[in-house]
Automatic annotation (TrEMBL):
Its cofactor is heme. This is Cytochrome P450. Keywords: Heme, Iron, Membrane, Metal-binding, Monooxygenase, Oxidoreductase, Transmembrane, Transmembrane helix. Belongs to the cytochrome P450 family. GO terms for molecular function: heme binding; iron ion binding; monooxygenase activity; oxidoreductase activity, acting on paired donors, with incorporation or reduction of molecular oxygen. Heme binds at C500.
Amino acid sequence: MTLTSNGSVSPLVSAACALSFVAIATSSLRKWIKTRKPYAFIPGPDPSSVAGYLLDLHSTDALSWHFNLPEEYGHVARLKGGLVGADALYITDPAALNSILIKQQAWFPESTEFAGLFGIIHCGDGVASVKGREHRKQRKYMDALFTASRVSKLMPMFYQVTRQLEARLTAAVAGKEPGQVVDMLDYLTRAALEIIGTAGIGHTFNSFDDKSEAFDEFHGAITSVLPLASRLFLTLPFLESWRKIQPVWLRRTLASIATLPWPAARRFRAAVDAMHPVYVKLYNTRQKALEEGGSAALAETAAGGKDLITSMIQANWDADEADKMPDDVVLANMSSIVHGGQETTSSSLARFLTIVAEDVDLQEKLRSELREAKAKKEPGEDLDFNELEKLPMLDAVVREMLRMYSPVTFVWRQTTKDVMVPLTYPIRSTITGEETKELLIEQGTAVYLGLSAANRSTAIWGPDAAEFKPERWLNRGLSGSKLPGAYSGIMSFLSGAKVCPGKTFAILEMKLVLSVLLLAFSFEPISAPIDWRMGITLEPRVRGREPEGVQVPVRVTAL
Ligand code: HEM
């Protein structure tokens, strides 16, 4: 180094050093930005805050933000991480979805965030929280429960509960003016819980008994747990590590301290604690029956042992030692089934009633179709599985409703290695203007798959994609879209390894409940609009009456 006579560094050298430092720092910063922002060339919305896209993605008002992404930015959009976060991708491109969910699904597991959340809600490692080989093993048990032939055998239980619903609703409107306002979400939540209770886990929650404390407690817990979880989304990154803390007493003590100042977190814990003992009690009854009387003894349990979870417990009991699921895994899967089968279906049914309430012609068309089908049966005889399946108008309306109003807005995946995915719609680089037909998704990228947004993409479904038009299914047939969704290309049930196992159950349940309600009642809308806001699933509230909580009031008249 050149020193001046008094021993200090020459100004020339100082300037050169400073320049080199700036050059190195700039080049490192560029490199850092490039590695942290590998998707800078992809169009995407500017986040509403320096915290990046997370608040926009999860906001309760975010539905239109989601629908707008493919329309404005394309079928792969860059979600900017803000000052400190990494960028993520929002994907609605058919070829990319096919690759992520099916062809290369091994590299796109469920996000650790959601795996952790569902692990906590279900108190263990059920299908919603495990990956890879363990997931495949558990899905083998679960998929065997939900075949069309097995689900069709549950119909008598579905009808029994639906008749209870009809009787309760009749009592609520009997002797009163036509067009009584009834919160249909409450009735349908009770019905969905009772259906999944009896047919799913062989248990009645006494859902139509106003005085049942057991129902109140369980119903309160299951309907509040996801809305509460939505409010805790900032804790999501820590939940997977949190739930693995051992011993359990330490975790529980830490949880009581950590949630003390936070009412939403305390209520979330209380909801989980209220549901778990119900599953444990049911599981123990089945295990005891098996230990004392073998498989035959299960027929003596509630629902004659025909419910889904009793079949799962029996299959697990009969399985080879290496294939058996531990008790806590079966328990977590009991919870997954009840959870999966409850809110999604009841809110879809409530949404359906608001649609037919707004459209008298559609309501009449559906009713005539049902009357015609019933006229071919003996008096008092119910429509069977195939007859319900084959009603074209009812089928078209259910499909269109699930396309337009997916209860699950998006799912969240994380790449475990660098993966190249093909694209149906090329990305035009915001930097060079060039088009690219494939995309390298880097290891560790958060990838959001926009189910609702893909279902409404005008490029995929046509210019009328955002309109509710059941006729599109009558005209086009059931061949579906370019999308890989498991229900005629509709993404609402997802597809691939994590496809909703309850799809056939849900569709049958919806068609059956609607067929009974439409023949017994007519529906009209209330005057105020109902807003469906984002949570982990959707939350309906009457505009201007938001503090009253979630509800779907509809005017009901007995026919
Ligand atoms: C309209 C009704 C329904 C819709 C739209 C729906 C949608 C979905 C979606 C999108 C997933 C994937 C979630 C993810 O990967 O993060 C899923 C998973 C699941 N659903 Fe459904 N679902 C419905 C009804 C049901 C019913 C009735 C049941 C059970 C009886 C059920 C049980 C499950 C279970 C257990 C999973 C977890 C599967 C796994 O992680 O491998 N769902 N559902």
